[in-house]
Amino acid sequence: MNLKKIWEVREFSTVVILALEILFFTWYLWPDGSRSHPFFNAPNFVLIFKYSAIYGIAAVGAAIVIISGGIDLAPGAVMALSGVVASQLFVERGWGLGTSMTTGVLVGLVSGLVTSVLVVVVKLPPFIATLGMMVSARGLSRWWSNGNPVSFPTESFAGISNGGSMTLCLALQTPDFARAYAAVVSSVQAYDLTAPTATWTTEPSLPLARHGLAVAAISNTLYAIGGSTQPGHTASTNTVDALTFS
Length: 246
Prior knowledge:
Shape: flat
Strand content: 5-15%
Structural class: mainly alpha
């Protein structure tokens, strides 16, 4: 009887599906030999939870609206408006970080309050009220920023936007295009936009060959961050290599 009640719980099927997915990928990605498992390991689960956190936070807010029988179309636009206001106050107007972040949160709260008044007091359907807030938030974001991106106010980053550094290219050296997406590479080529005759030059290779990495630039130094050392994102690394160009 107790098992029957558990089976009838609506969320139980979701848990079963999740367990089946874990079992499938554990079997499908089972490593050869003595290699560690690329999927069923603690660091990978931590990574999954980390990247899923933003969806979990959004789901909590959306669940309240859905449980009450409503709908909200404006969260994305309101988040963008809050981010634009906070970042411009901090970067371009010299406000403190805490004050800028607090102002961004207040913008989101005011937007939600306005939507609530339209639904509860004015009696507009939630679909219409949140659609109007979505369009309004998008327009306010463009008005507040004058349609311009927020620039980072340091000489190092300004030098990058003015062509004061090189562009990093990781060359895929695989003849088969179908396998190129999973190629693990280490070769580096640089293109100097400031040289009188701009040409590609071959630079020293990355110490650790990998793919799927991120790249960040500060002045004339490029940072190759993370990535996977095996095809198919089966062996992630937190290695950071600094490549400095003269």
